[in-house]
User: Fold this.
Amino acid sequence: MLGVCRHSLCSIRSGSLQRRGFLNMFGNVQKTHKGIHYVEQVEIGYTPKQVFDVVSNVDEYKQFLKHVRDSKQYNYKAITQKNDNLGNMQPTAYMNADLEVGFPPFIEKYTSSIILRDPDYVRVEAEPSRLFTHLENIWEMKEGSVAKSCILTFYVNFGFSNELYQKVANTFFNLLVKTMTDSFEKRCNSKYGKPSVTTRIIKSETTYH
Assistant:
């Protein structure tokens, strides 16, 4: 998911009655939260490298993520030293990405810094914006229980910047975040064909703060 709002495109052009009607869509939300932590872990029928290649290709997000209206990656910098002096794996590349996300009338652009460790780790962190106070998501891919499968762990932590956005948090969360791993799995299917195993949900946890 992927996550500074350099230019807000959010606008409501309808009349006052329509504006009140839109805001009342969220009147039944009993609780508002400043932030959400979400962790999902699944076993899917694609290799860690295949999943990594799909997740790290931000340019293509607009082609298959429903609420990503535009996506562009740039400033890619490869890192030649893959291990530190202790033998720990280090990032293999850094890059930036601009995304335009949302559903009318909430449409925002934001910029993210991305750390890549091919083929098992992607970390995305957005700068603070009109929409988010913070947004971070991490993808980790490990070998699965059978050949050509992987254990995919998706973590996202985000907070909205004002009360109105907090009121639409549940809508945003259900439309975009909770369907994230499924969307990427479908993308793998379109690129690599039939999965090697049936998807198995290992863990799904949501924490509000």
Q: What stands out?
A: The chain has six helices and eight strands.
